[in-house]
């Protein structure tokens, strides 16, 4: 059981902010001898859960993990959302992302690529912080205030760029504004030069269970197009919410 737990902990080290890690990184983060960490990594490699990265000595999540992540597309939420995501992508030309909570972070459930050569998006199964970026802030905004405080305290407010909100009080104000407006905006909070727009998706019991968002280079989301994109994202999220309610999907 201890071996299984260590292997799971190794897998959870990888994410949007740590797409690749060395044996030394993994050993340090889990307080393991390098030889032990390497043994666990070797076992994960055998099953395709970890693979060698293009950078010599580093490892990344393997193809089997991505295959498992794609398996979630068969769930009711994704089945309902996907055609509406495709329509939203056609209307805007941008990449559309469906995400939800996983413990104290966000996870990309599904995405539809835009038609532009230069795109901004998460991979399916990729995780991301909740305090920065449109998707994360939407997911965080609709949690109970006590849950918000716990996440902020436990995870912290890492600064990714000059626009990342790192003050807890300012973040709480931002989350309140998101609930009042019904959508979130992110102006380069995770990656400079990008702009994100996200809106909540609700279950029939009115719990925010997911976020629908668009991310793109900032220069493509300005002025009238930005306003129009906000309207389209909010409308698409509401349509998914209505479809979930009509089918009784919690």
In short:
By secondary structure, this protein is of the alpha+beta class. It contains nine helices and nine strands. The chain has a six-stranded antiparallel sheet, with helices on both faces. The chain has a three-stranded antiparallel sheet with strand order 1-3-2.
Shape: globular
Largest sheet geometry:
6 strands, antiparallel
Tell me the series of helices and strands, N- to C-terminal.
HEHHEEHHEEEHHHEEEH
User: Structural class, judged by helices and strands?
Assistant: alpha+beta
Distance between the termini: 33 Å
User: Strand share of the residues?
Assistant: 15-25%
Arithmetic mean pLDDT: 89
The total tally of domains equals 2
CATH class of the largest domain: Alpha Beta
Specify the CATH homologous superfamily of the largest domain.
Answer: GAF domain
Total number of β-strand segments? 9
Supply Rg.
19 Å
Under the CATH scheme, the architecture of the largest domain is 2-Layer Sandwich
Strand-helix topology:
Elements: H1 2-13, E1 20-22, H2 23-29, H3 34-46, E2 50-52, E3 58-61, H4 63-70, H5 76-92, E4 95-102, E5 105-112, E6 127-128, H6 134-141, H7 145-155, H8 168-181, E7 184-187, E8 194-202, E9 208-217, H9 223-247
Antiparallel strand pairs: 1-3, 2-3, 4-5, 4-9, 5-6, 7-8, 8-9
């Amino acid at each position: 059981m201890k071996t299984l737990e260590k292997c799971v902990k190794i897998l959870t080290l990888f994410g949007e902010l740590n797409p690749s890690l060395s044996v030394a990184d993994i050993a340090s983060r889990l307080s393991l001898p390098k030889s032990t960490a390497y043994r666990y990594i070797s076992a994960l490699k055998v099953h395709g859960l970890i693979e060698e990265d293009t950078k010599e000595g580093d490892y990344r999540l393997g193809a089997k993990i991505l295959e498992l992540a794609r398996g979630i597309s068969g769930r009711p939420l994704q089945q309902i959302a996907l055609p509406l995501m495709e329509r939203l992508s056609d209307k805007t030309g941008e990449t559309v992302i469906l995400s939800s909570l996983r413990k104290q972070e966000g996870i990309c459930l599904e995405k539809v690529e835009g038609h532009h050569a230069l795109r901004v998006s998460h991979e399916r199964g990729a995780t991301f912080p909740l305090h920065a970026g449109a998707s994360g802030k939407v997911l965080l905004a609709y949690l109970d205030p006590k849950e918000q405080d716990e996440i902020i305290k436990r995870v912290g407010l890492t600064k990714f760029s000059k626009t990342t909100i790192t003050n807890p009080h300012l973040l709480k104000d931002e989350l309140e504004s998101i609930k009042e407006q019904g959508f979130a905006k992110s102006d380069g909070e995770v990656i400079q030069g990008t702009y994100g727009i996200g809106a909540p998706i609700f279950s029939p019991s009115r719990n925010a269970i997911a976020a629908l968002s668009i991310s793109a280079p900032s220069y493509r989301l300005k002025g009238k197009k930005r306003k129009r994109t906000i309207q389209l994202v909010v409308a698409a999220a509401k349509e998914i919410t209505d479809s979930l309610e009509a089918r009784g999907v919690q």
